[in-house]
Amino acid sequence: MMTDPIADMLTRIRNALQARHSKVDVPNSKLKLEIARILRDEGYIQNYKTVEENVQGNIRLFLRRAANGDDVIEGLERVSSPGCRIYCSKDDIPKVRGGLGINILSTSKGVMTGKHAIETGVGGEILCNIW
């Protein structure tokens, strides 16, 4: 049984980037769909779609490369984990790489980027950082 599906998703993306794959499949869940939506909206991946293969289904992420062939995603980092949840108020949301990256938060108003959470005026659990 998997204890941390978000960390698994980030690791699969990291491994696919390392292996120079153009796409990667992760098991489907509502939370992972929201993370995929944010990654697409922020320009870190080209697109995503759900693939109905087994009972759960998968999310297929289409990875993005810059014009010179470099990966758009330089790093992914899990912040909060099932054993150690990390929460912050709207005033304490940290900047990722001096504002060059994004953090994804799970708030009472849904899953959103740290910047959006500050604009909305909510804090929450910091799921991960991406730069």
What's the arrangement of secondary structure elements?
Layout: H1 5-18, E1 23-27, H2 30-41, E2 45-51, E3 58-63, E4 76-78, E5 87-88, E6 102-107, E7 110-113, H3 114-120, E8 124-130
Antiparallel strand pairs: 1-3, 2-3, 4-8, 5-8, 6-7, 6-8
CA-atom Rg in angstroms: 15 Å
CATH class of the largest domain: Alpha Beta
Note the overall shape.
Answer: globular
Oligomer: single chain
Largest beta sheet, briefly? 5 strands, antiparallel
Supply database-style keywords:
131 residues, alpha+beta, Ribosomal Protein S8, Chain: A, domain 1, Dna Ligase, domain 1, 2 domains, five-stranded antiparallel beta sheet, three-stranded antiparallel beta sheet, 8 strands, globular
Short description:
The protein has helices spanning 5-18, 30-41, 114-120, and strands spanning 23-27, 45-51, 58-63, 76-78, 87-88, 102-107, 110-113, 124-130.
Walkthrough of the structure:
- The protein has 131 residues and is α+β, with helices and mostly antiparallel strands.
- The chain has 2 domains: 5-63, Ribosomal Protein S8, Chain: A, domain 1, CATH 3.30.1370; 76-130, Dna Ligase, domain 1.
- It has 3 helices and 8 strands.
- It has helices spanning 5-18, 30-41, 114-120, and strands at residues 23-27, 45-51, 58-63, 76-78, 87-88, 102-107, 110-113, 124-130.
- The strands form 2 sheets. Strands 4, 5, 6, 7 and 8 form a 5-stranded antiparallel β-sheet that branches. A 3-stranded antiparallel β-sheet has the order 1-3-2, with helices on one face.
- A hairpin with a 6-residue loop joins strand 2 and strand 3 (58-63).
- The longest helix is centred in the N-terminal third of the chain and has 14 residues, at 5-18.
- The mean pLDDT is 95.
